[in-house]
């Protein structure tokens, strides 16, 4: 198949969606499919080899922002647009986290969802002109539902069937200001009905979209995320000292403050006096004050020496990190549509302790690779962590069970086959 894959980039930090989408591109190509990548906003950034080194970046983040702010930048010459879209400038601008406020974010979200009726029409025209030089595609795959405004425009302009993954957009849309939230949801819902295939990353999230959008469940093609299993090797022996781990963005929404507080409480128990804590994952410039506050709290309890912070690690470092853990926990405060880090931990043979909601419940029920606790109940959280850390034999059993299930059901190969089946279906329907 000839596949167009449209993926937003992050430029300088890893995210689960970027890792998943870039892995799909590589897997499609390894399976013999011809894939054209259209990166949006910022250059792609993944913990595996890049997939878009020869592709221009469309809807460059600087241009999109300036066109939203003022009419003059909707009429700038192409040489200036090229300068603003240069990778060095986009990478530099990506480090300036927090540039856009809540109201502006809502305006830009609505504008992008409006497609050709939004303020970034010049960017859409440029993307369509480039795509028309790339030959005919059998299908187009969009990374997430925030790109639906572009998806329907490309479907109409190129006559190509369109599929879109859905990966937790509800949290973003629900957090918009009242003045933009309902408008964004209306556009999102309308566009979701016009595309050819809707691919939620979990059964949980299909239910969310069914309730939010009123689209029948049978109109969704659930494809759970899979990961690249190369490099995980065999299970390691348990570390000589118990190690509690965290792998996600270092921010409050992911519950890192709750994990640190739990660690402080556990260390007061003589049974856990040798416990160590390792914290890995993305840390942006805007996350640094939050992390510094946690480090100060740990220092006040004379525990900072027992904690290791590992920001922005490579894939090889991530696997080594996971294999050094006794248990992993990311007590996210919001409802995750999936939780790729849970599957990654299980692939390393590490059991998990997660709140009993959203995608976590689905993964742990399917794999048996961890335990759930009642969300919001801190005492239950402490008890779940303590129980896992105190019973090495049970932790080992859960780790082995989770690992076996992930290798069987949550591989990149399985996910790739499932996505190709959906793309082949909508492509054949389009031809007929």
- How many separate domains make up the residues? 2
Number of helices: 18
Helix percent band: 40-55%
Q: According to CATH, what is the class of the largest domain?
A: Alpha Beta
Q: Per DSSP, what share of the residues sits in E-state strands of 2 or more residues?
A: 5-15%
> What would you report as the Rg, rounded to the nearest angstrom?
22 Å
Structural class: alpha/beta
CATH superfamily of the largest domain: Glycogen Phosphorylase B
Give the topology string: H per helix, E per strand: EHEHHHHHEHEHHEHEHEHEHEHEHEHHH
Do you know the CATH topology of the largest domain?
A: Rossmann fold
Low-confidence stretches: 97-101
Please tell me the overall pLDDT: 91
| Number of distinct beta strands | 11
Shape: globular
**Widest sheet, order of strands:** 2-1-3-4-5
């Amino acid at each position: 198949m000839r596949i167009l894959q449209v993926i937003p980039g992050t430029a300088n930090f890893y995210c689960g969606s970027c890792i998943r989408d870039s892995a799909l591109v590589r897997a499609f190509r390894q399976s013999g499919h011809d894939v054209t990548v259209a990166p949006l906003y910022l250059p792609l950034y993944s913990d595996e080899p890049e997939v878009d080194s020869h592709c221009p970046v469309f809807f460059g983040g600087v241009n999109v922002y300036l066109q939203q702010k003022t009419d003059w930048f909707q009429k700038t010459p192409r040489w200036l647009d090229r300068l603003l879209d240069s990778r060095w400038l986009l990478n530099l601008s990506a480090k300036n986290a927090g540039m856009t406020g809540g109201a502006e974010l809502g305006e830009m979200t609505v504008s992008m969802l409006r497609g050709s009726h939004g303020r970034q029409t010049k960017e859409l025209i440029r993307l369509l002109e480039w795509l028309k030089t790339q030959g005919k595609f059998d299908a187009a795959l969009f990374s997430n539902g925030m790109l639906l405004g572009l998806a329907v425009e490309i479907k109409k302009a190129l006559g190509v069937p369109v599929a879109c993954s859905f990966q937790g957009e509800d949290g973003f849309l629900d957090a918009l200001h009242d003045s933009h939230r309902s408008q964004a949801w209306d556009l999102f819902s309308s566009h979701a009905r016009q595309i050819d295939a809707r691919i939620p990353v979990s059964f949980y999230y299909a239910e969310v979209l069914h309730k939010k959008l009123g689209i029948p469940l049978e109109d969704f093609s659930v494809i759970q995320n899979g990961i690249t299993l190369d490099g995980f090797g065999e299970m390691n022996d348990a570390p000589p000292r118990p190690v509690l781990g965290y792998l996600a963005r270092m921010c409050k929404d992911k519950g890192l403050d709750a994990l640190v507080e739990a660690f402080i409480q556990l260390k007061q128990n003589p049974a856990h006096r040798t416990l160590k804590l390792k914290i890995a994952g993305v840390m942006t410039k805007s996350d640094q004050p939050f992390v510094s506050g946690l480090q100060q709290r740990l220092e006040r309890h004379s525990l900072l020496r027992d904690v290791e912070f590992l920001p922005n690690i490579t894939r090889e470092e991530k696997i080594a990190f996971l294999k050094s853990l006794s248990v992993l926990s990311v007590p996210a405060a919001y409802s995750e549509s999936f939780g790729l880090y849970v599957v990654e931990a299980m692939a390393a043979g590490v059991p998990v302790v997660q709140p009993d909601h959203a995608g976590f419940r689905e993964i742990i029920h399917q794999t048996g690779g961890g335990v759930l606790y009642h969300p919001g109940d801190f005492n239950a959280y402490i008890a779940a962590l303590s129980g896992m850390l105190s019973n090495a034999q049970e932790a080992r059993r859960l780790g082995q069970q989770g690992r076996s299930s992930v290798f069987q059901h949550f591989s990149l190969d399985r996910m790739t086959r499932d996505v190709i089946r959906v793309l082949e279906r909508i492509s054949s329907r389009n031809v007929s």
